[in-house]
Specification:
The structure holds two protein chains of two kinds. The mean pLDDT of chain A is about 85. Chain A is of the alpha+beta class. In chain A, helix 1 (about 5-60) runs antiparallel to helix 4, helix 4 (about 130-215) packs parallel to helix 5 (about 230-315) and helix 7 (about 360-375) crosses helix 8 (about 395-410). Chain A has a five-stranded mixed beta sheet, covered by helices on one side. Chain A is about 70% helix and about 10% strand. By secondary structure, chain B is an alpha/beta fold. In chain B, the strands form three sheets. Chain B has a five-stranded mixed beta sheet, with helices on both faces. A five-stranded mixed beta sheet of chain B has the order 7-6-8-5-9. Chain B has a two-stranded parallel sheet with strand order 11-12. The longest helix of chain B has 23 residues, at about 10-30. Chain B is globular. The N and C termini of chain B lie far apart (about 65 Å). The model of chain B is unreliable at about 1-10 and about 30-35 (pLDDT under 50). The interface of A and B includes residues 1, 92, 182, 189 and 225 of A.
Amino acid sequence: MRIRTRLKIMTAASAALVVIMALLLFWSQHRLTTATKANDLADEIVSNVFDRNTLRSDYLRNNNQRAKDQWFSKQDQIRDLLKKVPSLFVSIDDREIIDDMHKNVDGSSAVFQQITENRNLAGNGQRHQLQANEIENRLTGQLLLKSYDTIADARRLQEASSQLIASTQRTAAWVSLSIIASLAIFMIVVVWSLGRIISKGIENLRLGAAAIGAGDLQHMIPLTGEDEFAEVAGAFNMMSANVAESHAALEQEIDERKSAADRIVQLNRELNNTVSQLQGANQELEAFSYSVSHDLRAPLRAMSGFSVALMEDFGDKLEVEARTYLDEIVIGSRHMGQLIEGLLTLSRSTRGELRRDSVDLSVMANRIRRELEQTEPERRVEWRIEPGMSTLGDERMIEVVMRNLLGNAWKYTSGRAEPVIRFYAELDNGVYFFCVADNGAGFNMAHAEKLFQAFQRLHRQEEFTGIGIGLATAQRIVHRHGGTIHGYGEPDKGATFKFFLPLGEEREKREES
Amino acid sequence: MENGETPMFLRNELISCLLLIGACCCVLLSGCESKKPAMPPEKATIAISTSLNSVLAKIADSKGFFREAGLDVALQLHTSGKAALQSLLDGKADLATSADTPIMFAMMKGARLSVLTTIQTSTRNEAIVARKDRGIASAADLRGHRIGVSLGTSGDYFLDSYLVLNALSRENVVLVDLKPEELSNALLQGKVDAVSSWNPLVTNLRKALGERGIMLNNESAYKETFNVVSMQAFPLQRPEAVRRLLQALVKAERYVIANPQESKQIISEFSGIDIASLASIWNDFQFNISLNQSLLVTLEDQARWAIKNRLTDRRDLPNFFETLYIDGLMSVKPDAVRVIR
């Protein structure tokens, strides 16, 4: 049974006992009231009989009409009182007494009537006085004993009502005591029982919690009864089963993650090895590239020099075709020299220590602008260089970036009637970008991925000269600084290149890493 | 209580509860339990009349109330209370049931009696049955006629009172002293013109005479009391026997009130009166245990009457109050004692 049900039963039983007690008290009160009324009535009858006896004596002594009338009047009052008696006295014994009283009262009336008649007869001379005296003597004797009997009966009724009062009080006291004792016993038993159930239930839960807390996830709390503790124990058992299941799943996941972590470590190690190998290979490649580029310059210079010397010393002796070939060699050599120079620049961009200089980009841009204008003094280009832009970084490398970007803008606006080249700073998503924009030839964004690849060009050599290595070099330098560079363009509308260089600590951290 | 079964723990609780409540009730009620007699039964011989006066004594005997009270009673049957009282006076019985008149006469003769209780009262038990064919149609007609009566009995006193209240006296009639058992034949055979006696004799005689008979009565003439008496030494020497006797009689009193039909049946078989006749006069009697002040009045009135009519040699009234053994009834049914003390 549920504890709540037990408590409800206990409450209901207590309430029922209280109601019984209330009813008992009500019943007792009613009985006491009735008994008290009965007692008073019996008392009144006794009192009236005494009054009647006094009137009888009065009449017998004085033979007066007034006393006779009063005697009969009192007799009527006693009869009226007797009429009320049956409603208050209901036991068989009491009924017997009441019957006897009626007989006595009626008998008294008859006897008194005979006394008065006897006196009248004697008074009228119809009866001899001695005879009348003897008759009255007999009658008064009967009247007297009937009075005694009436009083005795009334006293019995009085005692019966007194006993009823006493017995009612005694019964009420005993029954109340019994009910209170029963209630107390009931409460003690129920509270003790509930206490036992609760303490046992709590102990079971405690032991279960302790066992599970100690790691015994298979522990099951014994399910006894159908009370709330059984429900809690059931829920607890289900919870511990779920915990055990989750625990097993968790352990499995931990194992899997551990394996995965081991695998990742393994992969990282392999990756690091690969990266090391790649870095080594890269370095070797760059060293090789630098070395080749560097070493190729001497033979190229010799080849170009000797070709020029051949033209200068034996040009007039050579046929036109031979001279043309020599010119191609010289042009090829020059182009190759540019290529080598580019490669060397590219190689240098990834080599050497990265310095942390404070660089005034606006000044740098203006300087490059002047150099470009000197190469083609006839061109009129509108420069819009925002003053005061500066950053931290390797100044030599940043200048390479600026030269490439501004040089491209200069180059690709060559065909414009009103060329405009801008250099400005722009806040984009909380990051300051340095932007180089022009209204030159632009490019198709569909090929944007080729922009920063070495030796990739989006324009033909005949349109715009170049070796296709400048943007690749710029990107490498920006990346070395931890920054990014993007290009946006549209054919015949111009192009914009945006780059940012992380400053301060962030850049330093990246440098260290 | 699912599945219609009482759970074990609830059963345990209920059993514990009931045991505790039971134990509690036992403790509470132990003080109320009446003690049963442990002493051996007391032997007593009770002389009773076979008339209706001894109903309670007969019922107590028939229903075994004497035995239950611890009394081994032997009933001694007599035709009248006077004869029963004589048996007591002769030492042939320990107790007797008798009307007030024989008791008064015995005491006037110096008998030291104790009245233990009144067991019956009536104002209609005594009556005069007269023969109309002898010219008796009313009280006044009794003058000069022969009236059979057992002198010294309640029939005698009733007759005297009846005559007085009707302006007659004993001297105006011819009293014929007969034993109670002789009265019926004397009237039926015409030896007397009327008889004064008590039930069931008077009722049976009235019935037997039919149209020839008449019953004369006056409730104002006499109130009969029938009593249990013993010699004065008896209650002093055997108070426990008296207490048990009264216990049994009180039990009989309650039985008669609660079971009137069964009581009538027992008395009908005992007294020889048919049940219909018995039923017709049953309510003329009050079968109550009591000791009333009125008994003293009755005894004294009768004593004065006896002295006046020289029915006794004694010239002064004995103290009838000393005759009453009040302690016995006080110990059994105190509210039945209504003697002014």
